[in-house]
Design goal:
Elements: H1 3-15, E1 23-26, H2 30-44, E2 51-54, H3 57-65, E3 79-84, E4 88-89, E5 95-96, H4 103-111, E6 113-121, E7 134-138, H5 143-152, E8 157-159, E9 161-162, E10 165-166, E11 174-178, H6 186-194, E12 199-202, E13 204-205, E14 211-215, E15 221-225
Parallel strand pairs: 1-2, 1-3, 3-6, 6-14
Antiparallel strand pairs: 4-5, 5-13, 7-11, 7-12, 8-11, 9-10, 14-15
Helix pairs in contact: 1-2
The structure holds ribulose-5-phosphate.
């Protein structure tokens, strides 16, 4: 099976967790794109959600095309379930996210969700985080200092680019990808980044995911719970 078929399988399986009356969080990425189309089908077949929030303008547009009204995160007091993709997942269900640049809103939606489920194909599973550059969203006002600090600390910073220009996030910030592999102890790195002035958010999602739905290349679906 090709990777897109696997992404679609994981997305369809996750849809079974979505129930009438829920406040649903919908993430970002190519796997989530399959989820949104499936949710649209289920809406046509009668699914009634209380509210939907999402983590990017891309997903918002696709949700609206599928008939959903999207609320901002600030308009809900909690989210019952958020389904998102992930770039890497380790055996403790910690992960690296933000390959699509939506990490700041993704983390904010996730930490306000009662349950977080990630949908992945098996290429995303790793024994140890690394193997994928860690996105760090930084304020433009101090981004050069942040870049220099990361380089000095041996974190192998690279500017996220969009053609010849620096990639700009939804919030007008830049992304510095840390290409260090493997990552040092993720909790230590996360706390270093959390304490670095100018860092808006980073893509280490630790102790956030409750369940991963993995589509295996042999066509099996595995549900791994924390
Ligand atoms: C976007 C993300 C995505 O969830 C992650 O990049 C996975 O995307 P895909 O399903 O396309 O592999 O974190 O910021």
């Amino acid at each position: 099976m090709d990777q897109n078929e696997l992404k679609q399988m994981a997305a369809q399986k996750a849809c079974d967790l979505v129930k009438d009356g829920m406040i649903l969080g919908v993430g970002t990425g190519s796997t989530v794109a399959f989820l949104i189309d499936e949710l649209g089908q289920r809406r046509k077949n009668g699914l009634k959600l209380a509210k939907v929030v999402t983590t990017s303008s891309r997903s918002k547009k696709q949700l609206e095309e599928n008939g959903f009204t999207v609320s901002p995160l600030s308009a809900v007091d909690h989210v019952d379930l958020t389904i998102d993709g992930s770039d890497r997942v380790d055996p403790s269900l910690d992960g690296i996210k933000g390959g699509g640049g939506a990490l700041t809103l993704e983390k904010n939606v996730a930490i306000n969700s009662t349950k977080n489920v990630w949908i992945v194909d098996e290429t995303k599973l790793v024994d140890r985080l690394g193997d994928f550059p860690l996105p760090v969203e930084v304020l433009p006002i101090s981004c050069e200092q942040n870049f220099a600090k990361f380089a000095k600390a041996g974190l192998k910073p690279q500017w996220r680019m969009n053609g010849d220009e620096r990639y700009v996030t939804h919030y007008g910030n830049y992304i510095i990808d840390l290409a260090i592999d493997p990552l040092p102890i993720p909790q230590g790195l996360a706390s270093y980044l959390d304490q670095t002035v100018g860092v808006v958010e980073h893509g280490l999602f630790l102790n956030i995911c409750d369940e991963v739905i993995v589509a295996r290349s042999n066509g099996n679906i595995e549900e791994i719970r924390r």
